[in-house]
Amino acid sequence: MSHVLGHELRVTLLRLARRVRAERADDAMSDARLSVLFALFNEGAQTLGSLSEHERVTPPSMNRTINSLVESGIVTRVSDASDGRKVTIDLSPEGRRLVKETRRKRDAWFASRLASLNPDERAALDAAAPILRRLADQ
Amino acid sequence: MSHVLGHELRVTLLRLARRVRAERADDAMSDARLSVLFALFNEGAQTLGSLSEHERVTPPSMNRTINSLVESGIVTRVSDASDGRKVTIDLSPEGRRLVKETRRKRDAWFASRLASLNPDERAALDAAAPILRRLADQ
DNA sequence: TATTGTTATACTCTATAACTATA
DNA sequence: TATAGTTATAGAGTATAACAATA
């Protein structure tokens, strides 16, 4: 792959990702909030400290985000029984529903784009997907 | 392409884009500011209204962002000679340098990832790049 | 004494409403 | 009167510093 094609591919990835991210379940749900919900959905209930590390924000910042999510009834905050300093954050049923709905909308948007491709083109993306995945995981 | 693979590809794109975006020329340059600089670099000098539409923020919001960029010497604000209501925003030499440096850093980061692939894998990405591009442009 | 979370405070980016200058 | 930009004000998300509770 040439430098030029590497650049093109990178720019394309950024643009495509921007479009996908615009597909939310609810416009009132910001990127920061939604990202927390996906972390809880994918990796399960966690302490506030764990979440702040995962999202790479400070504990006070995550605390404020969690406060607003708790007020909205989207996550729950429970004190740890064995260590009183810790709190466990988890999705409420409403939070879980919201994650699923957002995921469904994004998948549907992306699938509608893929539907315009011919079989050869889809095969090319099929082949590229695991390679891109490895790049992201590196 | 199956639904499952579509979902995987979409998630991978989001993760990869997040990693690329983290590569900035200068950590003091936020996403909002940098996005304005890239718009000016790619599409040339524009009015404030045009920029606010492009970035999908309100004019007052864009105005504030432009104020701070002008104060930092990164863009210039010039009144239109033929229509006194309009102002034209453009990159300063420093702004242009910053865009190029950011682009270089992101390309370098991405190239270092691509370097770990074998020729077949690079060929697969080569084939996928124009297809992804079409998806993004749709 | 170290760890976990929270509160206090401030800065940036966003918005809506109201205003100024120009066409 | 309509348009382009700006100012006033407020809310969300980020940070650092200081504090409280618990181990």
Explain this structure:
2 copies of one chain form a homodimer. Chain A has 6 helices and 3 strands, in the order H-H-E-H-H-E-E-H-H. In chain A, strand 2 (75-79) and strand 3 form a beta hairpin. By secondary structure, chain A is mainly alpha-helical. The two termini of chain A are 19 Å apart. Chain A has one domain (3-137): Arc Repressor Mutant, subunit A (Orthogonal Bundle), CATH 1.10.10. In chain A, strands 1-3-2 form a 3-stranded antiparallel beta sheet. In chain A, helix 3 packs across helix 4. At the A-B interface, helix 1, helix 5 and helix 6 of A face helix 1, helix 5 and helix 6 of B. Chain A binds a DNA duplex (23 and 23 nucleotides) through helix 4.
Write a brief structural summary:
By secondary structure, chain A is mostly helical. The first copy, chain A, contains six helices and three strands. In chain A, helix 3 crosses helix 4.
Oligomer: homodimer
C-alpha Rg of chain A (nearest Å) = 18 Å
Tally of domains of chain A: 1
Contiguous helical run count of chain A: 6
**What overall geometry of chain A do the principal axes of the alpha carbons give?**
elongated
Biggest beta sheet summary of chain A: 3 strands, antiparallel
- Name of the CATH architecture of chain A: Orthogonal Bundle
Kindly report the spatial arrangement of strands forming the biggest sheet of chain A.
Answer: 1-3-2
Our estimate of the beta-strand percent of chain A is: 5-15%
| CATH-defined topology of chain A | Arc Repressor Mutant, subunit A
Largest interface: A-B, 42 and 42 residues
Structural class of chain A: mainly alpha
In angstroms, what separates the terminal alpha carbons of chain A? 19 Å
The total beta strand count of chain A reads 3
Along the chain, the helix and strand elements of chain A come as HHEHHEEHH
* Unreliable spans of chain A: none
In percent, how helical is the residue content of chain A? 55-70%
* Mean pLDDT metric of chain A: 91
Highest-level CATH class of chain A: Mainly Alpha
